[in-house]
């Protein structure tokens, strides 16, 4: 009697088929042993087509086995395997990227790229951090400088004195004294240079009153000023037009602190008088000096007379300067080919991008004329009629940059305008009116200084 017996044994991800056929005799009880049948019946080809096949998943693919692997097992059966529905192994992590050379990016001036890498996890040591901060002296890098400071306060060396001082210096150069003061207030330790940098920053940003308040705070905490301290203090007095206070600090140098005034201190006091409009008082003070005035004093007076528009005094000071130092002859007095006219260019810093604006051929008159604005046509030197002069004033690029900034930036946020030429008096008056109308701070950096327009006033006190 022919009898066939088939058994399918499933264990893990392998399939064993046991087949017995052509048995002539009846077997009362048959229990196949896995030990005896495994070596010769390890096959999947005998699976009938009626059995469902497993999906083509790499987990179900039978791996090559050693024929003697089962015999070496003392229990006589295959070791347990992972279940079919077990979760897949975790993915292999991507290979680690090569470390970024932040120092090389710093040397190449790629500040923005370095900041992006640091935001993604790259670490910088103190020298590299110092170099990156030093590269942010231009106002267009103000956003990168702020990101660097946010990263710096998370580092273990956030109390480093030199790096904090550099942050104060760079924020001052970028015209953001609020950020410079924030760095100053968070510093656990301060040196004499820290106080000097903050006072000088206020003075260079036409905020001399704030600089004088920092000096008073310096004296209250018991810091003894030195000679350089009074240089920056006199600079703050000149910006604030504090003539009386400037003389008080100048006289206190020797009386209270025993510091003998140097040439730089006399120059600072002359600037206090000259920047306040007292040019002839400054000349009288120079003539009464206990020593022969050097060339640097006459050069200072010449520059002050030029800024104040006193041409006669400027020529007189230039003659005295050349008589002392012939190398100071002005190039304007030498017949040279005419220089190429520079175009008025403005750069508006906002939304992490820089835009450049040039003089357009046609422009519509703004509504600022209705707000007590009267065009000052003295700044138009062309021989044209009055209406054409008013139209020419509206062509100035800083006005276009401010107009674009007002419509493309959020309300109540400061605008920073960078101009490669000196701002004219008419634009200066117009921007003061704009700041009062829109209620925003307008920071304009021309080729001479910073102008902080706010609530209809400028930090320069209408003197630049």
TrEMBL record:
This protein's GO cellular component annotations are: chloroplast; mitochondrion
Keywords from the named record: Repeat
Give me the ranges of the annotated region Disordered.
47-96
Q: Where is the DYW domain?
A: 373-464
Any single GO BP term: embryo development ending in seed dormancy
Q: PPR repeat boundaries?
A: 191-225
User: Which sequence ranges form a coiled-coil region, renumbered to this chain?
Assistant: none
Annotated Pro residues bias: 80-96
Keyword Repeat listed:
yes
Q: Which InterPro entries match?
A: DYW_dom (IPR032867), PPR_At4g14850-like_plant (IPR046960), PPR_rpt (IPR002885), TPR-like_helical_dom_sf (IPR011990)
Entry's Gene Ontology molecular function annotations: mRNA binding; zinc ion binding
Q: Which residues form the signal peptide?
A: none
Give residue spans, biased composition: Low complexity.
Answer: 62-73
Q: Which Gene3D superfamilies match?
A: Tetratricopeptide repeat domain
- The answer to whether UniProt assigns keyword Repeat to this entry is yes
Stated name of the protein: Pentatricopeptide repeat-containing protein At2g15690, mitochondrial-like
Organism annotation: Dioscorea cayennensis subsp. rotundata
Q: What is the lineage of its organism?
A: Eukaryota, Viridiplantae, Streptophyta, Embryophyta, Tracheophyta
């Amino acid at each position: 009697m022919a009898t066939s017996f088939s058994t399918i044994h499933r264990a893990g991800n392998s399939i064993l088929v046991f087949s017995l056929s052509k048995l002539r005799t009846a077997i009362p009880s048959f229990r196949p042993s896995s030990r005896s049948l495994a070596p010769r019946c390890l096959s999947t080809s005998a699976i009938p087509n009626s059995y469902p096949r497993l999906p083509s998943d790499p987990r179900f693919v039978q791996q090559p086995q050693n024929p003697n692997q089962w015999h070496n097992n003392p229990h006589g059966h295959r070791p347990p395997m992972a279940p079919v529905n077990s979760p897949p192994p975790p993915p292999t992590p991507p290979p680690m990227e090569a470390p970024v050379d932040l120092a090389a990016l710093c040397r190449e001036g790629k500040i923005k790229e370095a900041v992006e890498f640091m935001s993604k996890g790259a670490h910088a040591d103190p020298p590299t951090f110092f170099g990156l901060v030093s590269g942010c002296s231009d106002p267009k890098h103000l956003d990168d400088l702020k990101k660097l400071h946010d990263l710096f306060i998370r580092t273990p060396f956030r109390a480093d004195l030199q790096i904090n001082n550099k942050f104060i210096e760079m924020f001052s150069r970028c015209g953001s004294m609020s950020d410079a003061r924030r760095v100053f207030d968070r510093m656990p330790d301060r040196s004499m240079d820290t106080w000097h940098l903050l006072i000088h920053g206020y003075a260079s940003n036409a905020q001399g009153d704030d600089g004088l308040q920092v000096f008073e705070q310096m004296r209250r905490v018991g810091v003894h000023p030195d000679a350089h301290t009074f240089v920056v203090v006199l600079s703050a007095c000149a910006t604030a037009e504090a003539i009386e206070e400037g003389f008080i600090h100048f006289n206190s140098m020797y009386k209270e602190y025993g510091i003998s005034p140097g040439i730089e201190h006399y120059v600072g006091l002359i600037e206090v008088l000259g920047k306040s409009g007292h040019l002839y008082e400054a000349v009288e003070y120079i003539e009464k000096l206990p020593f022969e005035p050097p060339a640097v004093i006459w050069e200072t007076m010449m520059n002050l007379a030029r800024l104040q528009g006193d041409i006669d005094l400027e020529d007189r000071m230039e003659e005295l300067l050349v008589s002392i130092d012939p190398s100071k002859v002005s190039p304007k007095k030498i017949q040279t080919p005419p220089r190429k006219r520079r175009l008025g260019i403005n750069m508006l810093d906002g939304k992490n991008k820089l835009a450049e604006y040039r003089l357009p051929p046609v422009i519509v008159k703004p509504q600022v004329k209705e707000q007590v604005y009267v065009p000052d046509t003295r700044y138009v030197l062309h021989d044209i009629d009055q209406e054409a002069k008013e139209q020419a004033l509206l062509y100035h690029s800083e006005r276009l940059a401010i107009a674009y900034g007002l419509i493309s930036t959020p309300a109540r946020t400061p605008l920073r305008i960078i101009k490669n030429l000196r701002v004219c008096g008419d634009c200066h008056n117009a921007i003061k009116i704009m700041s009062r109308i829109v209620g925003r701070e307008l920071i304009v950096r021309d080729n001479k200084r910073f102008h902080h327009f706010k609530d209809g006033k400028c930090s320069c006190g209408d003197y630049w």
